[in-house]
Design a protein that fits this description.
The chain contains no helices and twelve strands.
Length: 130
């Protein structure tokens, strides 16, 4: 089972039921994590990365992110999904500065000794205790 959690918004994905690459305006992102922090329960992972400005439905230059975890016995693969506001004017300019962002996902089982990989590239991500 895949679980996705965004700030204040939760969505549940059952394998094969939906394509995680594009659901309700969310698209799969190739990303490079700065790191992952585990919560005290060992199941909550906060993914730290750089992205666009904080989401605002009225601002076409903002972005929202959520993390989806695919768990196995030896690893947790994390995918980031991104969405932009539905309002996109015909012409607008955005800056390209990087903003420190995070997304949280709750695992079915504690992380334990499993490694965390960023998908789709499979790069091992450093994990620290929160």
């Amino acid at each position: 089972m895949r679980r996705a959690l965004s700030i204040g918004v939760a969505a549940l994905f059952v394998l094969g039921a939906v394509r995680p690459e594009h659901v309700d305006g969310w698209s799969l992102e190739s990303w490079a994590a700065e790191g992952v922090t585990t919560g005290t329960d060992g199941r909550t992972l906060t993914v730290h990365f750089y992205g666009g400005p904080e989401f605002d439905e009225r601002d076409p230059c903002t972005e929202d992110y959520r993390a989806i975890a695919q768990e196995s016995s030896g690893a947790v693969a994390i995918r980031l999904q991104r969405r932009v506001p539905r309002y996109q004017p015909a012409s607008f300019d955005c800056t390209l500065e990087a903003h420190s962002r995070s997304a949280t996902v709750t695992l079915d089982a504690p992380l334990g000794r499993r490694v965390v990989r960023s998908e789709p590239k499979g790069i091992v991500v450093p994990v620290s205790q929160g």
